[in-house]
Amino acid sequence: MTSTQDCPVRQKSPAARHGSPEEKLAGGSLTLAELKAVKEEGKELLSKARSQEDRLAALLAYHLSAAAGLIHHRRLIVSREREELDPVFLDLSSVPPEPWLGLLARAIRS
Description:
The structure is a single chain. This protein is mainly α. Helix content is 65%, strand content 0%. The chain is built from six helices and no strands. Helix 4 (52-73) crosses helix 6 and helix 5 (82-92) runs antiparallel to helix 6 (100-109).
């Protein structure tokens, strides 16, 4: 799939509530408060996940919002230690297309 527009995980992402997740998360147009809200919505979705798609959407929302916080605001918005995130970002960066790949790669280097 070359486009992420029809991806069910993308459509279920808490970030989609704020507009295009590509524009908002990867593009850096979410405020720090909005990123924290996306992260919290991801955590809540994970606790209520009934399908693999819900679980993937929740995990991606959580970790992509953490990466966006590091890149666009230079802030760690999750309770995990910074050193714990790089291996997760590295694992996740082997899966998605751009712009997510670039966002995760930049977060690893930050």
